[in-house]
């Protein structure tokens, strides 16, 4: 019996493996051969150029090679075609890695999934797509993950805010779309958001709407508390807010004719109790907050195939970047969630730690170099200061005898000096 169970388990495992399909995978491990699989759009003549590189820091010099944006302030439009398929009745998984090693300030890091009939040579920002997914950063206010679905020709943005990673390391982004109309977004193989297509997108009209015929009854009392009708204001309640200062005295130099009638300054009244308000009691007629009745929306029609795209066939990178340097790699489009997770662990998971270690080491070297440069500048400045002091001319001694002018009688000068001294 145990043998039979084991055999069944093996067959089940094989069946899962056979059923799983990878429609597109790209790791850029064959040098410049990627250029035969990817096509740059000709819609504009000044699209930014791509280069194959692992970047300034990496976990593996070969495995981490990907396509990098290389020109600042450019639009980029690049796509790759694969065998068309439909995701009807099965999950759709879109996954890739992004590294903003340039510390991006404004630019996209997302992908678009297009219908197979896309003209790749004419692809541009307004080309209709099925799905747009991935990080988008612009300044401090926009740091989010886009999840946009096209339904009947209209693009619908997710209503939730999903924060993306904004550091300079490589990160793994995964979108899972299921045939039960649920979805999941993962970053670095960890779930960050999930839900249903109907709840988190305004793809379909709402199932119900407020009844236009319904109105709040005139006698509907929605006050939870009311004034106590038996409560009355005390007779001594009314006290002025401010009173004359009883300790104030008229100044001795006060002149009524000049200064007018003297009045003492006002001070807060310690007996002032504020505006009187009756005590609150529970309202015996309270009916609660009135809720507007809803009716079935006549414009709503259920659709169990919102998730379905019939002719998936192109993956594109259609984006704008102010500061270039983003590296895209490890693309995967398939229908098996587990396989995508394992692929992520084998790629991003295997190199993330070495990549961070290399980046940290580079930053430490740069820090040391800056310190040495600052120290060198300071030492140079100090040395120049010392040289300036050494070059300063010595001041003449005012008390030293004046140099004898040519042709003058030294004795005469001495006699004149003595004469002057004696006259004082």
From TrEMBL:
Basic and acidic residues bias spans: 208-252, 352-380
GO cellular component: cell surface; cortical granule; endoplasmic reticulum membrane; sarcoplasmic reticulum lumen
Signal sequence, renumbered to the chain: 1-20
Subcellular location, principal: other
Cellular localisation: Cell surface; Cytoplasmic vesicle, Secretory vesicle, Cortical granule; Endoplasmic reticulum lumen; Sarcoplasmic reticulum lumen
Region named Disordered: 197-252, 344-424
Disulfide pairings: 106-138
Keywords, ordered alphabetically: Calcium, Chaperone, Disulfide bond, Endoplasmic reticulum, Lectin, Metal-binding, Repeat, Signal, Zinc
PROSITE patterns documented for this protein: CALRETICULIN_1 (PS00803), CALRETICULIN_2 (PS00804), CALRETICULIN_REPEAT (PS00805)
Residue numbers binding an alpha-D-glucoside: 110, 112, 129, 136, 318
This protein's record includes keyword Ligase: no
Keyword set includes Hydrolase: no
Classification via InterPro entries: Calret/calnex (IPR001580), Calret/calnex_CS (IPR018124), Calreticulin (IPR009169), Calreticulin/calnexin_P_dom_sf (IPR009033), ConA-like_dom_sf (IPR013320)
Acidic residues bias (residue ranges): 381-408
Gene Ontology molecular function: any one: carbohydrate binding
Pfam short name (any one): Calreticulin
A single GO BP: ERAD pathway
Family classification: Belongs to the calreticulin family.
Protein name listed in UniProt: Calreticulin
Gene designation per UniProt: LOC110524201
């Amino acid at each position: 019996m145990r043998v039979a169970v084991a055999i069944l388990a093996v067959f089940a495992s094989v069946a899962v493996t056979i059923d799983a399909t990878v429609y597109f995978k790209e790791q850029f491990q064959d040098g410049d051969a990627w250029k035969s699989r990817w096509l740059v759009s000709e819609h504009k003549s000044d699209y930014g150029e791509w280069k194959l590189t692992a970047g300034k820091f990496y976990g593996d010099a070969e495995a981490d090679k990907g396509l990098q944006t290389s020109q600042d302030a450019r639009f980029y439009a690049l796509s790759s075609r694969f065998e068309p398929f439909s995701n009807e009745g099965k999950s759709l998984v879109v996954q890739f890695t992004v590294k903003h090693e340039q510390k991006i300030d404004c630019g996209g890091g997302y992908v678009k999934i297009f219908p197979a009939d896309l003209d790749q040579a004419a692809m541009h920002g307004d080309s209709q797509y099925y799905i747009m997914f991935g990080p988008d950063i612009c300044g401090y206010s926009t740091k989010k993950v886009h999840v946009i679905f096209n339904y009947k020709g209209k693009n619908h943005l997710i209503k939730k805010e999903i924060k993306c990673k904004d550091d300079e390391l490589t990160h793994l982004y995964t979108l899972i779309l299921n045939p039960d109309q649920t979805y999941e977004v993962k970053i670095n193989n960890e779930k960050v958001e999930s839900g249903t297509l109907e709840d988190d997108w305004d793809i379909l009209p709402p199932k119900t709407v407020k009844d236009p015929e319904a109105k709040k009854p005139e006698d509907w009392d929605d006050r939870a508390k009311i004034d106590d009708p038996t409560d009355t204001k005390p007779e001594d309640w009314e006290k002025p807010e401010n009173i004359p200062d009883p300790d104030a005295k008229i100044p001795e130099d006060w002149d009524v004719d000049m200064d007018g009638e003297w009045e003492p300054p006002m001070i807060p009244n310690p007996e002032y109790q504020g505006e009187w308000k009756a005590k609150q009691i529970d309202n015996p007629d309270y009916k609660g907050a009135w809720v507007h009745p809803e009716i079935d929306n006549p414009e709503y029609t259920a659709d169990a195939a919102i998730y379905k795209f019939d002719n998936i066939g192109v993956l594109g990178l259609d984006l704008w970047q102010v500061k270039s340097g983003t590296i895209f790699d490890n693309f995967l489009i398939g229908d098996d969630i587990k396989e995508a997770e394992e692929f992520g662990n084998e790629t991003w998971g295997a190199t993330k730690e070495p990549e961070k270690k290399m980046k940290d080491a580079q930053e430490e070297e740069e820090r040391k170099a800056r310190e040495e440069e600052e120290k060198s500048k300071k030492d140079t400045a100090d040395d120049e200061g010392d040289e300036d002091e050494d070059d300063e001319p010595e001041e003449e001694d005012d008390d030293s005898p004046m140099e004898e002018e040519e042709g003058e009688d030294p004795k005469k000068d001495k006699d004149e000096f003595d004469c002057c001294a004696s006259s004082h």
